[in-house]
Amino acid sequence: MRIILMGPPGAGKGTQAKVVAARLEIPAISTGDIFRANVSEGTPLGLEAKRYMDAGDYVPDEVTNGMVRDRIAESDARNGFLLDGYPRTVAQVAELDSMLESSGHAIDAAVVLTVDEDELVQRLLTRAKIEGRADDTEDVIRKRQNVYNEQTAPLLEVYAGRGLLVEVDGMGEVAEVTDRVFAELDRVRGEAAS
Ligand code: AMP
C-alpha cells in the first residue's frame, strides 16, 4: 500500500507511522526524521534545514521534494511506503503526484489523525521534556500549529476531494489508535478488492 499519514504536530504521526508501516512491511518515510538525521550528521542538507526547523517553519519545497523523490526511488519502497509528514504543502502534493505518475503508482489512502488542540500542546510539551527536541519550545510549538493550519490543513480537502481521506480519532492509547487506523485501512483494502 501507499499511504500518507497526516495530522497536526503532536497528533502522534511518528509513533503510528512506525507501528503501521512495520505491520504492513513497508518503510515509514518521515521527512522530519530524515531532516533530523541530516542535522545531527551536519550535512549541507541538515545545515540548510535546521534554520527553518528551529523557527517552526517548513523547509523549502525544492529541498524537501528532492529528498522524497530520492527516498521513494530506493528499492525498499518499491512495493509500498508510508509517508509521515509529507506532503505538507499544495506544491508538495503536485510533486508527489508527478513522482507517482512517473512510476505508475497511486496513493491508496491519506490517513489524518485528529486530536483536540489542548491535548496537542500538552503532548508536545511533554515530548519536549523527554526528547529535548529543539523545536518543541512553547513559542515554536505555537508557530508550528499555525503553519500547519495555514499550509497543511487545506490538503485535507484535496485528498477528501479525491475520495482518499480517512479520518482517525488520534486520542487515547497508542494501541487503540493503531487499531482504528487498521480498521480504516482494512475497509479501504476491502473496497479496492471488491
Ligand atoms: P516533523 O518531525 O514531521 O514534525 O517535522 C519537523 C520539522 O521538519 C518541521 O517543522 C519542518 O521544519 C520540517 N519538515 C518535515 N517535513 C516537512 C515537509 N514535508 N515540508 C517542509 N518541512 C518539513
UniProtKB/TrEMBL annotation:
InterPro entries noted in UniProt: Adenylat/UMP-CMP_kin, Adenylat_kinase_CS, P-loop_NTPase
Binding positions (AMP): 31, 36, 57-59, 85-88, 92, 133, 144
Pfam hit, one: ADK
Subcellular location: Cytoplasm
Annotated family: Belongs to the adenylate kinase family.
Domain notes: Consists of three domains, a large central CORE domain and two small peripheral domains, NMPbind and LID, which undergo movements during catalysis. The LID domain closes over the site of phosphoryl transfer upon ATP binding. Assembling and dissambling the active center during each catalytic cycle provides an effective means to prevent ATP hydrolysis.
Name used for this protein in its record: Adenylate kinase
Gene responsible for this protein: adk
